[in-house]
Fold this sequence. Notes:
Number of domains: 2
Radius of gyration: 23 Å
Largest sheet: 2 strands, antiparallel
Shape: elongated
Strand content: under 5%
Strand order of the largest sheet: 1-2
Amino acid sequence: MRIGELAQRTGVSARSLRYYEQQGLLASARTPGGHRDYPEIAVDRVIRIQELFAAGLHSSKIAELLPCMRDADGGPSEIATPQLVTDLTAERDRIDRMITDLVRSRDVLNEVIGTATDRTAHDEAEAHK
């Protein structure tokens, strides 16, 4: 498929797809006219890349990680290294800390909203007396 179709199917800009290629995250063949031609599996690859970026990983870590992820048959890749496992454990721990911080922030906001809502209701009740 051409780059425009891959961009449309994944919701990722053509510019980002070209960046993924520059970083070694995605590969394409070239048509005789020089256009990029992606295999069907590129859709899943781009979605996986987006998930990893969303998790906070940078492109060099993703490039290191992608070949070690589950193979097409669903089994674990045999090329994952102990260092990669250590690095990914650290990334997971960082994400867990972020989640904890976000939950704490949400709780503070809920408390402020609850207090403001109670005060507003009280003020409105007083105004109607």
